[in-house]
Amino acid sequence: MVRMHLRKSSSNGRIQFRNLVLFCAITVACLHLYLATILTNRADLASSSTDHGSSGAAGGLGETLKRIGDGGSNSAFGEVDTSSHNIHTQTRIRNEFENVQGRGGYDSLPVVDDDAPRATIAYAISLTSCSADSIDDGAAVLKHSIALASFPFNKKSKYQSKMYAFVHPDAMECSKSFEKLGYQVEIKNTPIDVTQIRGDFLREKVVKTGCCQEKEFLKLYSYTLIKHPVAVHLDLDSLILAPLDDLFDAMLDGKGSERLPVMHNKTIPQNIDAFYTKDYNMVKPGHKHPGVQGGFIVVKPNMDYFEEYRRVILEGNFIPGGGWAGKWGGYYGAQQIQGLCSYFFEGLHPGTAVELNRCIYNNMNDNPKGKKRGHNPEGLKVCIDGKPTCQDCRTTPIEQVKSVHFTICQKPWICPLYVLNNGLCKSFHSKWFEIRKSWEESSGHSIAMQEENVNFHNDVFHGYCTGNGRRNYKPVKL
Q1: Per DSSP, what are the bridge partners of residue 159?
Q2: Residue 163 DSSP symbol
Q3: Exposure pattern of 167-187 as b/e (b: 16+ CB <10 Å)?
Q4: Which residue in 41, 250, 294, 448 is deepest, having the highest Cβ count within 10 Å?
Q5: Sign of CA dihedral 183, 161, 476, 99
Q6: What's the N-to-C CA distance of the chain in angstroms?
């Protein structure tokens, strides 16, 4: 009995010993795999760091960041990588390269939050020719302002951004800098063949009027960005000062729409297809259908709408002296986007788009009043929008303004000293030059400053203007 007990104990001991050996072997194998993974990752990082001075869209570190930024999966609201692997990878990259400065500015730096973005919003601009001044300056500063107001660099935003440039073939030569800055450049012809417009008046006049003639219809390609839940089209002389999450939330699920600052306290539809502002300064007081301000339009991409726009243009139902369908016109740009979108939002699809408060969004520092129509010997001024009272955007606290459009305040790159005493113009220009300085510091494109710059309204121009006028402006260097 004793020998039997000893044999059983010995057998149990051998089993336990084999189990221990097997456990140790598995542990060693896991450690080898873990160490191999670390070494591979560090080799990848070392390889990518050899090209840290290149564009965020090309090779080395830029390619690594591009892969992270592009994401690897699609969510219900666009291209977003929400996998834990990608978040951990981004965090590792940030820890390894937190001091590396990418060519494109903050939006190419590996700075991330622990949470994934809700969606990727498309931001687009249109380039119709190379005749405009300081295209590179506008593109760099606008893109950087969007990055600073978006995930992951702004902790108040849940939406990341992706930049697009719709470039007409006539402007291909000057679009190369957009690629360097990180825009996805798409060469686009005008969405319609002007010669096929059936309305004689529109066919003859649309190629001669407005800022960009028929080429302004390039903005309609925003509707084709169907990989994104929302597309924001801006002019290059615009600036984003705060996250636009309230607009995106309202468009995607209706959250917070009742709190949106809209014009004339109008009822907000349950399903919002577009946001826009109007340009009341282009019409006389009491005009029933002022045009949409073409420098700020937010839409849900929709190919059916895109094709409908094309059909409307080709139909050419633009009445001389009246406008689209005889109602939407009578102002600068009426034959292009300003009049077309007004007709589309209000005439063809009423109750689907929302006119935002222009003092908060797309603020142009405009005077809300104009001279009363008809007999008016005293020169009495009334609200242009036809209401008894109207908000003066020139007195809006700058902290409340979410986006700016440099029209009345003139372009920053002409160093317009004469507008600084006009309402918010000084604050607008100060913000633009402040963001330009931020972009240069983050992207390694700082230019040499001269001592005399400090004495020329440096609180506004931050050393980039040596005097009043375009010739005294220091352009960006790419």
Answers
A1: 119
A2: E
A3: bbeebeebbebbebbbbebee
A4: 294
A5: negative
A6: 92
* Radius of gyration for the chain, computed over Cα atoms and rounded to the nearest angstrom: 28
Question: 376 φ, ψ to 5°?
Answer: -150, 70
- Beta bridge pairs of residue 239: 404
Helix (H, G, I), strand (E, B) or coil at 275: strand
pLDDT tens, residue by residue, 3-12: 444 344 444 4
Q: What is the DSSP letter of 344?
A: I
Please give the Cα distance from 405 to 462 (Å, whole number).
20
Task: For residue 124, report the phi and psi dihedrals to the nearest 5 degrees.
Answer: -130, 150
Backbone angles phi, psi at 420, to 5 degrees: -65, -20
Pairing between β-strand 231-234 and β-strand 119-127 as defined by DSSP bridges = parallel
Query: What are the phi and psi torsion angles at 299 (to 5°)?
Result: -135, 160
Q: How remote is the C-alpha of 302 from its chain's centroid?
A: 18
Residue with tokens 């992951």: 152
Q: Are 345 and 292 in contact (CB under 8 A)?
A: yes
Among candidates 454, 475, 468, 462, which has minimal Cα distance to 416?
Answer: 468
What one-character-per-residue DSSP string does 349-414 give?
Answer: STTSEEEB-TTTSSB----SEEEPSSS-TT--EEETTSSSS---GGGS-GGG--EEE-STT--GGG
Q: Which two tokens stand for residue 56?
A: 């965020």
Q: For the whole model, what pTM was predicted?
A: 0.78
User: What is the H or E stretch that residue 424 is in?
Assistant: none
What does the pLDDT look like over 318-336, one tens digit per residue? Answer: 999 999 999 999 999 999 9
**Three-state DSSP class for 200?**
helix
Angle of helix 84-97 relative to helix 2-49, nearest 10 degrees?
60
Owner of token pair 């994401």: 71
Residue 362, sorted as left (phi over 0), alpha (psi -120 to 50) or beta, turns out to be: left
| Residue 185 one-letter amino acid | V
Length of the chain: 478
| Per-residue pLDDT tens digits for 218-251 | 999 999 999 999 999 999 999 999 999 999 999 9
